[in-house]
């Protein structure tokens, strides 16, 4: 597979990216919200095959202290091919030099990220706009 990797947002079809997140499946991420979050992220990557968006990811980083890798998505037909690993490796490499690299993972995917050196944080906490939904999905725990 020959992939075209891009790091800038020029020419990105935000509706196509939104469809990628739904297909992955990583939930409903409206195009305008994706434009905002990718635009505000220091590191991003978009992976195309024959002009079609097949993978994406980003890292919200401050340039020195913290880089937060998130929103890694790969089309189902490309999952299991190593593309997700390549996207994570790319964002980890771009984040090198930060004091900490943090990653937010789908519950159950933690073993995948351990391969990159990520360990579970014991003190991480979050407030979501829909706490009950995230409790039900396994992202949060009340203990």
Structural commentary:
InterPro entries: Acyl_CoA_acyltransferase, GNAT_dom, NSI-like. With about 140 residues, the protein is an alpha+beta fold. It has a single domain (about 5-135), classed as Aminopeptidase (3-Layer(aba) Sandwich), CATH 3.40.630. Helices cover about 30% and strands about 25% of the residues. The chain has five helices and five strands, in the order βααβββαβαα. The chain has helices at about 15-25, 30-40, 85-95, 110-115, 130-135, and strands at about 5, 45-50, 50-60, 65-75, 100-105. The chain has a five-stranded mixed beta sheet with strand order 1-2-3-4-5. The termini are far apart. The model has no long low-confidence stretch (mean pLDDT about 95).
């Amino acid at each position: 597979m020959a992939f075209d990797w891009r790091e800038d947002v020029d020419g990105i079809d935000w509706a196509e990216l939104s469809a990628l997140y739904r297909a992955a499946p990583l939930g409903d991420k409206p195009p305008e919200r994706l434009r905002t979050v990718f635009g505000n992220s220091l590191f991003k990557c978009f992976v195309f095959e024959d002009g079609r968006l097949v993978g994406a990811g980003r890292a919200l980083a401050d340039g020195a202290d913290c880089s937060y890798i998130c929103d890694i998505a790969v089309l189902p037909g490309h999952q299991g091919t190593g593309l997700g690993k390549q996207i994570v490796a790319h964002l980890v490499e771009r984040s090198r030099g930060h004091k900490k690299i943090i990653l937010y993972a789908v519950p159950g995917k933690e073993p995948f990220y351990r391969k990159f050196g990520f360990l579970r944080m014991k003190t991480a906490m979050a407030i979501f706009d829909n706490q009950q939904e995230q409790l039900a999905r396994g992202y949060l725990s009340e203990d």
